[in-house]
Each structure stands twice: as C-alpha cells, then as structure tokens.
Amino acid sequence: MTIGLDDVVAAETALSHVDGEAGRLIIAGHDLEELAGRVAFEDAVAMLWSGLVPNAGGDPRALLGRARARAYAHLAPLAPRLSGLTAVEGMRLLLASLPDAEEDHPALAVGAAGVAASMAVRGSRGLAPVAPDPAAHHAADILRMMRGAPVDAGEAKGLDTYLVTVIDHGLNASTFTARVVASTQAGILSSVVAGLCALKGPLHGGAPGPVLDMLDAIGTVENADAWLDDAMARGERLMGFGHRIYRVRDPRADVLKAAAGRLKGKDNRIAFAEAVEAVALKVLERRKPGRRLDTNMEFYTAILLDALGVPREGFTPLFAAGRTAGWVAHAIEQTRTGRIIRPQSRYVGTWPAEAA
Ligand code: ACO
Fold first, then answer.
1. What is the domain range of residue 152?
2. Which domain of life does the UniProt lineage start with (predicted)?
3. Is residue 346 in some structural domain?
4. In whole angstroms, what is the distance from residue 108 CA to residue 113 CA?
C-alpha cells in the first residue's frame, strides 16, 4: 500500500501532463514553451476549457472582462472586512462569499480570482479596492488593480506569461483537493475555495518569498559562493532549487527566466538573480554531486513578480489567480465522472478488547 499516494494515479485528465524525468510540461496538448509568453492568458484558458465549458467558444477576453466586472460588483462591498487579514486570508474570504447559484461559474471563478487577489493584497495594506476595466487584458487588469497605478505593456506581458505558466500542473496538492471536493458534486466555486486552502500551506505555495530573503542575505555576487556553500554545509536547502517531480530543470523556470529577462534594465534584481543562480548550480554540483538538483519555478517566480512590483504577500494570491483556471477545469472533469474520490486508510490505532 502506498502511503501518501506518491505513485498512485487518482484521476484521468486531458488537461496537463508533467514529465519529471524529461523536464516537460504539456498543457492542453501543447508544450508549455508554445504557450507561455506566446498566448494570452484568456486564450490559454479557452484552450484548457475546450470541450468542458460550453461558452468558452466566445471571445475569451470579453468573457473574463465581464466576469471581473460582475465579481467586483459582488466583492467590493466586502473590502472593509479585509483589514487585518493576510492577502491569502482575504482572498479566501472573498471567494468563499460568491453565491453558488451563478450560471456561468467557470468564467466567474477566474474573473473573481483575479479581482480577489488584487483586492486582498490592497486590503492587507489598508488600501481601498480598484475597479476592473472589462476591456483590458486579464493580466494587465489584475496588476493595475493590485497596484492602483498604470501598467506598461512589458509588465502586462510579464504577468501574462506567469499566469499561463501556472495555469495547470498535473495532480498537485491543490488540484487534487479541488477534485476531491468536486467529486462530492459540491460545485465549481467550492472546489476553487478548497484549492486555495490547500495552496495556502508553505509546502505548496510558499517558496518565492524565501527566495528573495536568500538573495537579500547574499547581498553581492562576490559573496554568493561563500554564502551558499556555508548554507549547504549547515545542511540548509537553497531556496528555489530542487523539485519532488522534476529530476531535471523545471521547464517553468526557463519561461519565467525569459519573462524576467525581458524586464531587465529596470531597477530590479534580475541580473543579480541570474548571477546567483549560476553560482548556486555550481555549489549544488560541488556539494551534492550527481544529484541533478536544478532551478525550480519558485526561483524565477520570485524574481519576476518582484520586478513587477508585487509585494511578497501577493505571490500566492497571484499563483491562485492563474491556477483557478486549472482548478475549474479539473472540477468539471471530475464532476463529469460522477464518481466520488474515496481512498482507503490503514488503521494503526488500538483495537477494542475482545469480549471474554
Ligand atoms: N538545496 C540543497 N540541497 C537540496 C535541495 C536544495 N534546494 N533540494 C534537495 N536537496 C538535497 C537533499 O537534502 C537531499 O540530500 P541528501 O540525500 O544528501 O539528504 C537530496 O538533495 C535529494 O533531495 P530529495 O529528497 O530528492 O528532495 P525532495 O524531493 O524531498 O524535496 C524539495 C524537494 C522540497 C522541493 C526540495 O528540493 C527543497 O526543499 N527545495 C528548496 C525549497 C523550494 O525551492 N521549494 C519550492 C519547490 S517547487 C514548487 O513547489 C512549485
């Protein structure tokens, strides 16, 4: 019996495939590299939902724009309740408040996730929400609502690339959670809220912040080798390196590195991060020879979102804003099977005493 389900196939999906040995991620029949930075998030959503969501055939940009506007009308009155909450807590409160009875749940959930991420980050800092622009691209609008200031085309493309990159990734913990809830026929919005709850934990959504802490502590490129080597000598793990599934480089790291590279030259730490990455890979090879430890997605997530002016507490909400499209699709796929996910447990407690 496998404890923890590590090698168990718990669902069939046509949505995405993760090949950890080859370092390959396939989303809706396309390699990640064909989509991220090339296809707008709205179009990636339409591709992912093709065959699952009937109205996904309309103009995806207009669909999500309308969804953001409808979500904002519902969520804006809740803004005063965000004060004192972390951004993830605020996002959970907002998404959990959406009524179950809406007809177009799929688009509403994704639109609401973008609005809620922006509102929750602002609310955690005591700032009032900013209304969406239904005519804008989804990524550009999220970033503008979060910042409360205009976003240039390069920055919008940076976030767009990020949202497409995280749209789906096999049966990770939050997606599995969303499928379990969907399997009870609880509906799309409940499945999305459940996915967000699973994402909140530091073992799933939490590495990008520590990547920035590590870069802050290293300080200069000259200091990198000694700092990283000392950390490994103390048995610490280098943040943004290694992965449970990928035994080679995480393909998402490369597309995010390219996206961050397009923002280079501004006042950010992209060039520094690239230099530290090169040193870290040498230190890892020296300290753990033959282990195939390479850069994971979280390293360049941190660099890219930081360069876009997103505060650290906004990293997980933005991940959720992108991943909601995947949670929705998995929830629909699972609901259609009509089968509840109900694994077994092995009892290791004490047995009642036998009757004499
Ligand atoms: N830095 C230094 N050494 C490492 C690192 C790292 N980042 N990752 C793994 N190792 C070492 C382990 O200590 C272990 O060494 P040992 O056998 O001598 O004790 C060896 O490499 C093998 O590690 P695994 O057991 O294969 O790694 P595991 O699958 O358990 O962990 C994990 C994967 C949690 C991602 C790990 O690599 C890690 O902690 N990385 C740093 C945190 C991080 O970047 N998290 C984000 C992950 S990506 C994501 O969530 C989307």
1. 15-202+312-335
2. Bacteria
3. no
4. 8
